## 1
Amino acid sequence: MDRRHFLGGLATAAIGIAALSTIPGPPDPKVKSPYSDIPSPQRRRDRFVNVPLITHEGREVRFYDDLLKDRTVVLNMLYTVCTAEAICPLGTANLVKVQRILGRRMGKDIFFYSITLDPENDTQSVMKAYAKAFKVGPGWEFLTGRKEDIERLRRNLGYVDPDPVRDSDPSQHSGMIRIGIEPLERWGGCPVLSRPGVIADAILRLEPGRLLTAA
C-alpha cells in the first residue's frame, strides 16, 4: 500500500469506521432487491465463499460455517514476509494491543482471523511460527489454504485494487481490516495501524448499546 493510500485510510479512521466495498450490505427495506425474498440465514451465508482453510494449529475449517457464522470478527490479510513498508508485522503487533484491550471477550464472542496472501510460502507451520513470534492470545487464528481458495476469498472480502497492475503487486496490498457482526449483518473497517483504542472502539461501536470497555 503506497503512502497516499495509507494516509488516506488514516484520515478516514479519524472520522469513524471506514466502509469497505464488495461485501453487500443488508437490503434497504424500502427498496425491492434480489435479496428481498431470501431468508436472512441464507442471505448471510450467500455473501461469503465458504472455502476450506487450515488454521495455524492445523485445524481444517470452512470460512463461513466455522469462522464467521454467528460471530463478531476482525479480518485482515497479510504476508508473513512483507514488502509493503512492513505494514504486515506492524499491523499484527498493533492488533495484539487491540486483543489485550478486548481482554476476556477474545475467543468468547470476538474473534480475529489473519489470512495469508501467500499460501504457497505461508504454510501452516510458517503461520504457527508467525503467531508464536507475536505471542498472540486465544481467539485469534492465522489461516492458510489452497492458492485458488485464498484468491477467491481475497476477492470476496474486497481486498482488490481495480487496477490489475497494482492488484498483482505484493507491495501494494491493503492495510485495512474488516470488522463485522455477522448475525446482525453489520460490516465496517479501518486501517490496521490505527490506534489500538480506535480499533477496539470501532469493533464495539458496531454492537447495539455497547461502549468501549477494557476487561
## 2
Amino acid sequence: MSELRWNPLLEEWVVTATHRQERTFLPPQDYCPLCPTRAGSTATEIPAGDYEIAVFENRFPTFQRHPPEPAVEGSELCPVRPAQGVCEVVLYTSQHEGSLGELPVEHIRKLIAVWADRWLELGALPYVQYVQIFENRGREIGVTLTHPHGQIYAFPFIPPVLERELAACRRHQRVSKHCLLCDILAAERREGTRVVRENVGFTAFVPFFARYPHEVHIVSRVHRTSIAELGDDECWDLAALLKDTVCRFDALYGFPLPYMMVMHQRPSDGKRYPYYHFHIEFYTLHRTADKLKYRASSESGAGVFSTDELPEQWAAELRAAGA
C-alpha cells in the first residue's frame, strides 16, 4: 500500500508505504543486492558483471509510478490520494566498500552528470513537482544497505521544507531585489570564520544558523537554480568539493561519519523560480566521537533546534580535519 494522507494541522502530506516493511535490512556479509551479479552467484539488482554507476527503480518505493488506490476513503478534512511518483536508487560504484569521499574526482564528475540527467528526466514527468536527490550514510541514519549509494525521490508535490525555503527566497527577492542564498553566501565569505573550503565554482561552509553538528552547506558561487544548469567547470569544482567535504567528515573522528546529504533545487512543476539558488546541505549526527545529537522533543515536537557547540567551532574543526 502506498498512499498520501493530508495532515490538516501542519498542512502537509504524510506517506503511508506499508510494503517497505519488507525491504532488505542489513543482508549477510556474503551477499549484497547492490553489487554486480557474479558468475555462479545469487543474482543481485544489477544483471551485469561490473558497472561504473548504476540507476534503477527502488523495489520498495515510497512513491510508485502506478500506485494502488488508497486503502481508506478520505474526507474533506483529511483528503487521501494515491502516492504517485518515482523512487530510484543510484549506485555510486560497483565496489562494495568505500564512500563518496573515496571515489576519484573524475568518477564523482560522472556521478554529477547522472544526477543531472535523472533530475531532468524525472522532473519532466507530468505528475512530478519536485525531484530530491539525496544520500543517507550510516546505520545511525537508518541505512539498511552499506554499499555506496544514494537515492532520488520524485514527489507529486513540493515538500514542506522546500515550500518554506521558496517562500523565504521569494520574500527576500521582492524586498531587497537580491537572491537570498547569494546574500547568505556573500556574508559567509565576507565574515570567513565558518568557511571550510572553496574553489572557483562553490563554497562549503558551516552556516551561521547551523542546526546539526558540523552541518555543511555547499553553495554555487554563480546563481543557479538546479544541478542541470551547471557548466562543465562548475561540475568539476562541485565534484572536488563534495570529495573534500566527505573526506573531512571521515577524518574528523577517525571513522566514516554518518550523514544525510540533500540537494536543494527548484521545483519541476513547470513554473519559474528565478529567485531560488541551488545548494547541497550535509547534516551529521555526531556531536562528539561517541555521542549523538538526537532530534528529540524540542526539535520534533516544536521544530526548534538547539546545539551544543558554536558553528564557528565546528567550521574550525572541519578545517583542521583536512590539514
